[in-house]
Amino acid sequence: MGLLLGLLAGVGRGLWSQAQLPSWQRQHQQLQAQQAQQTRAMAEDRARVQEAQWQQKAQLRDGEWRLRRTQLLRLHEVLAQAGADLGLRLQRWQGDEQRLQLQGWLPQAQIWPQLQARLSAAGPQEWRLHSLQAAPDTGVQLVLEVAWPAASVPSQGTRP
Amino acid sequence: MKLRLSAKGVRWPWPPLFAGLVCSGVGFGLGGMAWQDDIDALQHLQDEVPALQSRLAASPVSVSPNERVATSAQPRAALFRPDARQAAVFWPVLQQGLQGQGLQLQSMKPGPLESAAGWPTQTVVLDVQGRWDDWRAFEQQLDRHAPWWTVMRWQVTPLAAGANGRSDAGQVRMQWHFQWGWQPASAAASPAPAAPVFGPDVSDGPAAPAADMAVSLFAEPGVEPTLPAAAQTAQTAGPAERWPVQALRLQGVWQQGGVWHAVLGRGLDQVAVAPGQAVGREAYRVLRVSADEVVLQPPHSGQAPLRLGWSGGGR
């Protein structure tokens, strides 16, 4: 009798499991799909955020580069003007990531402050007279310089 | 445990209820055997589904709002530029731009692609000869049409005298170390943009320098322009007069009308002096200026004159 009852219960359980299985499978598949979609969305969002952060850094760098370009073009304009109306002649015009330096000649000594003032107005900072000496024939040789620190480059990183 | 055998047959050692339970258990197992796979699968799903549900409920829907703000604030169009794939195409375009402006390209040395914060950059060293005004016109075009560069360092000098001993008037030799920033190829989902075309815009007006700037900045010295009145009367007098003389440094000397002058200064404060002039907080007086030094007379007699030389500091 016990054996019979057990058999009946076992069969009943088997049949019930068989009936339940499809709905659980459907629910499981839906959840798996939902999870996959969420994972994908998260990955895309992270990629977008990283992209935005890189772009932000690139824009920052672009701004610094633009500033340096603008300063350089403005200085060239000032030098050209000084060549025309102050008689400035350049023997060397150089710059690096530390400073700018010009070595030139002026027809008269007393006009170097004007040149210095014009350059300082153009930037990037106050220009400093490094040296000034009488030229062999006439006029004066002078060296003016200014600090020009390198644009800060965003910290190194790698793209995926 | 032993089974007892007797004439009546086999006798179970357990009570009948226990035997019934055992039998029903065996029956239950036997009855479910045909659906064992389904039973196992259901059991597995019943464990898995709640775990999945809790995982989904626990994980954030998306990135944080702060990060989203950062994302939405970046217009991609603002960073339009050629991507790294075009670098090889760009250099010949740059070369044509230089030549189109009348400049001679002596050499062009592009460096390897590097990465700064994930963005490709590349240095290029240009050796160029030509007129300074032509270079200025070119750099303005470069800034307008291809604004993805910065200058790392440069040197411009007048071109050395030729074999005949005569320098090429206004010609300069230039070395420019540029750094270019490219668009990462992976970020450029769209087709690579066209390389820039150098040349003056119609709206730019004449590219040549204005007539009053036609004098070459790098020409031989000697041509004195007519100076404006302001330049003629410019004097230097400033806060340097308030410094103690020991803090002043000799910054320049020159001779004018047979009289030596000097520039004394500290940092950006400078003052031009000539013999007889008072200088410094202590009211020293300039005794003598020569090519090597300035000699200052102390305000009180009995003190030794102070000499300011090129090496700096009084002695």
Short characterization:
The complex is a heterodimer of chains A (about 160) and B (about 325). Chain A is of the alpha+beta class.
Molecular structure report:
The complex is a heterodimer of chains A (160) and B (315). With 160 residues, chain A is of the alpha+beta class. Helix content of chain A is 59%, strand content 19%. Chain A has helices spanning 2-85, 112-122, and strands at 89-95, 99-106, 128-134, 140-147. In chain A, helix 1 runs antiparallel to helix 2 (112-122). Chain B is elongated and about 150 Å long. Residues 73-79, 205-212 and 228-237 of chain B have low confidence and may be disordered. Chain B has 315 residues and is α+β, with helices and mostly antiparallel strands. In chain B, the strands form four sheets. A four-stranded antiparallel beta sheet of chain B has the order 3-4-6-5. A four-stranded antiparallel beta sheet of chain B has the order 10-11-12-13, with no helix packed on it. Chain B has helices spanning 16-32, 36-58, 65-72, 87-100, 132-145, 229-232; strands at residues 4-6, 9-11, 104-116, 119-131, 149-158, 171-181, 249-256, 259-266, 269-273, 278-279, 284-289, 293-297, 306-309. The chains are: A alpha+beta (160), B alpha+beta (315). Chains A and B meet through helix 1, strand 1, helix 2 and strand 3 of A and helix 1, helix 2, helix 3, helix 5 and strand 5 of B.
